[in-house]
Amino acid sequence: MKLTALPRKVARGLPYLGKELRAIASDRTPFFMAVPRAVHIWRGAPCNAKCIMCTYGYFKGDKYRELISSPFTDEMMLRALREIHELCGRGTLVSYMGGEPTTSRHVLEWIELAGELGLDFRFTTNGYIMNEEMAQRFVTAGLFNLGVSLESLDPKINEIIRPYKDGTAKTLRCIELLLQERGRQKKHISLNIKTVLTDINLESFLDIAKRFGKIEGVICTPQMFEPLEDMPSATKELLCIKDTERLRRVTDQIRELKRQGYAVHATEQALQEMVRQNLADKNGKASTMHKKQIEMNPSEPECNIGTDNLWIEHGLVELCPYHAPIGNFVKETNLTLKQMWYSESARRIRAQTRACRRLCTISCLRRTPILHKISTFLKIA
Ligand SMILES: C[S@@+](CC[C@H](N)C(=O)[O-])C[C@H]1O[C@@H](n2cnc3c(N)ncnc32)[C@H](O)[C@@H]1O
Ligand code: SF4
Ligand code: SF4
């Protein structure tokens, strides 16, 4: 990290530190004063690709149509951003997920409004339609962070998982264009290169991390492959990691890369859970994680997701996607997100999330050590 960047990062990080202190006080005293430091907006929306591990890749007919539509419409995003600002103030991560966001003609308005409100807006893209103009506009509008999905530097591997003509070259060009543009505008935007770990690309993550993990403001994230419900069994069979020892070796190599200063976004707990999860369910037979009843180690602390995270999932407002909603953003227009967050039903459901011991795929958002949060923030801010 360049020392000259430190004052900007500290200024940007102060609101998060304030939220962290409020969360700690809320978890340890009877007084609840926390506000979300991250809001996740998940909704159905169109995508321009058909990756084999994704529902967009294998759902057809009505099921596919359901994926690309949502009661939470594009137009509701501006109200959502204003209400998030009212509840959380500046310095809040707003993470958007809906199909392929770059295909929405509204995405620039969202980035711009978020920038004006001081919210840190981010989403993940396949990067296929990124061009000079889009890169320039995203950086100018103040996009905080962009996830870029890439399964391998080798097109022969990447394009098995992500079949798209010249997709690997296009995704790599997206990364290049954004790095060039932020240099040209001298503005900051961080990139998070995300790789799903599967049986056919497991070691590819190490090559990706070596290529990008030492560039300022770039982090690389390994994500465990989720054998989703309804996924064709041939795809599960192809992608599930069969040899836990091989996965263990890769997690050891990830630890070594971290020691060497490569920016890999995976806590020690997450690396251990990847191996544990694979040992418990090697072939994905137990289906999606929320159907599995694999529990975390008894020594792990209680889950504090409901203290500092909030979801708007297809319009439902939730403290965790695996627990009951605390409100409905689409239907309950008489209530703001702030009112829902401090409501009696939120208090009750928050108690349930604290008691939850599920080994879930939201593990990277659960209580992570404050030093890890600060170090991650300093890398991406
Ligand atoms: C659903 S995509 C949406 C954003 C964008 N279209 C993209 O591909 O980056 C978000 C992330 O989920 C990952 N993903 C998709 N299916 C998955 C699965 N079955 N298991 C784990 N991660 C998956 C993708 O690789 C991507 O990084
Ligand atoms: S580009 Fe993203 S949303 Fe589209 S099919 Fe691939 S993983 Fe799914
Ligand atoms: S452990 Fe996982 S499923 Fe349970 S409340 Fe926490 S984040 Fe949600």
Question: What is the compact description of this entry?
Answer:
With 381 residues, this protein is α/β, with parallel strands linked by helices. The chain has a single domain, classed as Aldolase class I (TIM Barrel), CATH 3.20.20.70.
Structural account:
The chain is an alpha/beta fold. The protein has a single domain, classed as Aldolase class I (TIM Barrel, Alpha-Beta Barrel). It is 45% helix and 12% strand. It is built from 16 helices and 9 strands. The chain has helices at residues 6-28, 55-58, 61-67, 76-88, 107-117, 132-141, 155-161, 167-185, 204-212, 233-239, 244-259, 268-280, 305-308, 337-341, 344-355, 370-380; strands at 38-42, 93-97, 120-125, 145-149, 190-197, 218-224, 309-313, 316-318, 327-328. Strands 6-5-4-3-2-1-7-8-9 form a 9-stranded mixed sheet. Strand 7 (309-313) and strand 8 (316-318) form a beta hairpin. Helix 1 packs antiparallel against helix 16 (370-380), helix 6 packs across helix 8 (167-185) and helix 11 packs antiparallel against helix 12. The longest helix has 23 residues, at 6-28. It is globular, with a radius of gyration of 20 Å. Residues 287-291 have low confidence and may be disordered. The site of one iron/sulfur cluster has 10 residues, from helix 2.
Question: Keywords for this structure?
Answer:
nine-stranded mixed β-sheet, TIM Barrel, binds iron/sulfur cluster, globular, single chain, 12% strand, 9 strands, 381 residues, binds S-adenosylmethionine, alpha/beta
